[in-house]
Design goal:
This protein has 414 residues and is mostly helical. The chain has helices at residues 17-22, 33-60, 73-104, 112-125, 130-142, 180-190, 194-215, 242-266, 268-294, 309-313, 327-336, 344-349, 355-369, 383-391, and strands at 2-4, 177-179, 300-302, 401-404, 407-410. A three-stranded antiparallel sheet has the order 3-5-4, with no helix packed on it. Strands 1-2 form a two-stranded antiparallel ribbon. InterPro entries: FA_desaturase_dom (IPR005804), Fatty_acid_desaturase (IPR012171). Residues 81-377 form the Fatty acid desaturase domain. One of its GO terms (molecular function) is oxidoreductase activity.
Length: 414
């Protein structure tokens, strides 16, 4: 006997790019080098304040200046202090990552040279091959939600998981009636047990970003084995781009050299405490933000016959980063990361709009999209929401998909 699981209906948009762009006030497209620089400088100042505050407080954690009931509490207090430092520093350093990302979209300045210089410096300092990722990220924007052309978060199909073909006697196309036998098959194929979901959740947050750069993990599955962002002749790059890939690799070489020199000078523990732990938080936020922007049970992926740029651009969600922890944390999350999570649909419609104009542009875009019934807001972006999505197996499987023509929407087996 089949059990019911209601998914709702996804509205496949037919609106044109011209209509969307016409809704955005012209001044929102203006890019100011000075204003963009001030936003980047502000995040650097905040990070500097965090460092000064942490080092000042660290010096006070000793028996001569602070009385604690047990000696073991001193190292615990010091660990807690630097853990707090790494969390907040990582959050604001993610904002610098976003500034570099904007530079890659030519949204930092009217000058291409300034954009690429700022982007290369900031991304190299955060372990990102600037031009290499800029090129593949542009492909992602051009083909967001395309089953065979998108660069990241491309879900596996039913056949990829070795599952039986669709059988209308056991399930329906709308995904509202699924036999227990099918649910069991999906559960076994996906391995979406609570333990499996938890392990996948943590490993993906910690290692997902570098694994994507080095091994194309979670990337486009049609790319050959060995695909990475560091080889000039990788399938994603054209011959005229090879020089840019080498420039990106030089940035990574200098980054590694700087880290090695720092470890030699100050020791691994100090470098990890000051830079390494916040760096891991940056990678964590990057994966969490981007995964949730593009992954949800109701977000579609399109086959080539149904794909358009507009449909791909609108197959994303705006989410309030840390909004699940309250309005204050939501405001801090948006402020620290330049609103990249909160205005993401607008970013896909027009990626050259700088983040400080994206809020107004996003509001204008919402007005023209409201009559379509298109869902634009996801649940607040945080650990609970990512766990929910991972635990439901979304993005890891399925031709066990609700299907309208060549539009495919993942759904759960719950």
């Amino acid at each position: 006997m089949a059990t019911k699981h209601e998914q709702g209906i996804y509205v496949v948009p037919d609106i044109t790019v011209k209509e969307l762009l016409a809704a955005i006030p012209p001044h929102c497209h203006k890019r100011s080098t000075i204003r963009s620089s001030m936003h980047a400088l502000w995040n650097m100042i905040v990070i500097g304040v965090f460092y000064k505050a942490a080092t000042f407080a660290d010096a006070l954690i000793n028996p001569q200046t602070l009385s604690l009931p047990h000696p073991a509490l001193y190292p615990f207090a010091r660990f807690s202090l630097w853990a707090l430092y790494s969390f907040w520093t990582g959050l604001f350093a993610t904002g610098l990552w976003v500034v570099a990302h904007e530079a890659g979209h030519q949204a930092f300045s009217e000058s291409k040279a300034i954009n690429n210089t700022v982007g290369w410096i900031l991304h190299s300092a955060l372990g990102v091959p600037y031009h290499s990722w800029r090129i593949t990220h542009a492909k992602h924007h051009a083909s967001t939600g395309h089953m065979t052309q998108d660069q990241v978060f491309v879900p596996a199909t039913r056949s990829d998981k070795g599952l039986k073909p669709f059988d209308p006697k056991r399930e329906d196309l709308q995904g509202s009636s699924v036999a227990e036998e099918v649910k069991k098959e999906l559960y076994e194929a996906l391995g979406d047990s609570p333990l499996g979901a938890t392990l996948g959740f943590f490993s993906y947050l910690i290692a997902g970003w570098p694994l994507y750069l080095m091994f194309n993990s979670s990337g486009q599955p049609r790319y050959p084995a060995g695909t990475n962002h560091f080889t000039p002749k990788a399938i994603m790059f054209a011959p005229h781009q090879w020089g840019q890939i080498i420039i990106s690799d030089i940035g990574i070489f200098l980054w590694v050299a700087a880290l090695a020199t720092s470890v030699y000078t100050w020791g691994f523990a100090t470098v990890f405490r000051v830079y390494g732990a916040p760096y891991l938080w940056v990678n964590h936020w990057l994966v969490l933000i981007t995964f949730l922007q593009h992954t949800d049970p109701l977000l579609p992926h399109y086959r080539a016959s149904e794909f358009t740029f507009t449909r791909g651009a609108l197959a994303t969600l705006d989410r309030s980063l840390l909004g699940d922890l309250g309005s204050v944390m939501g405001w801090i999350g948006a402020h620290a990361t330049m609103g990249i999570s909160e205005t993401h649909i607008l970013h896909h419609v027009c990626s050259k709009i700088p983040h400080y104009n994206a809020w107004e542009a996003s509001r204008a875009l919402r007005k023209v999209l409201a009559p379509t019934g298109l869902r634009m807001d996801g649940n607040p972006g945080g650990w609970a929401e990512m766990y929910r999505v991972v635990e439901e197996g979304v993005g890891r499987s399925i031709d066990q998909r609700r299907k309208v023509g060549s539009v495919r929407c993942a759904r759960t087996t719950k």
